[in-house]
Amino acid sequence: MFMAAGPIRIVLADDEIHIRYLVRSIIRAEGYTVVGEANNGEDALAMYRLHQPDIILMDINLPLKTGDNVLAEIIREFPDAKVVMLTMVADVETVKRCLELGATDYILKNNSVEAIRQMLRDIVASLPQKEATV
Amino acid sequence: MKDLFDLREMLEEIKNDEKIHRVKPVLLNQKEINEMREKLNRLKREGKKVT
Lengths: 134, 51
Known about the structure:
A: alpha/beta, Rossmann fold, 5-stranded parallel beta sheet, 5 strands, B: 65% helix, elongated
């Protein structure tokens, strides 16, 4: 039987504490769970490996390892990973590279809170439903 | 007779244009990003090489 099992689990990676605070509040208001937070690229990768969340929301400009490099490593290890870039980097080359590497979505931080919330809902709605044993 | 086009001048202009292009990257808005994502997804589904 296929059904949603438990809340959506999300890892959040951003080096700006106020952005993490804002996004965390959006995630929680939607009823999803933040299972881990990272403020640099290496921790983001470690968090992903540890929790294997439904979604990772990640900035591009991260210390130690950039978000696009973390994206490439996650996709190499977990080809079905849902990696969503949440960033202010909007140059065409970076956007194209991330999408080609396998980013599920690419969201600009300058969107309204409501727009980010809606995009998050759309991503969650597109997730394959988890298989639950009943 | 003077040439209509000065090759050296044209090459210099191209070089300058390239510099400007590199300094000022093309920035996308969310709508354009979504369109690019849709296009790449469609190409992947159709099994075409993404260029």
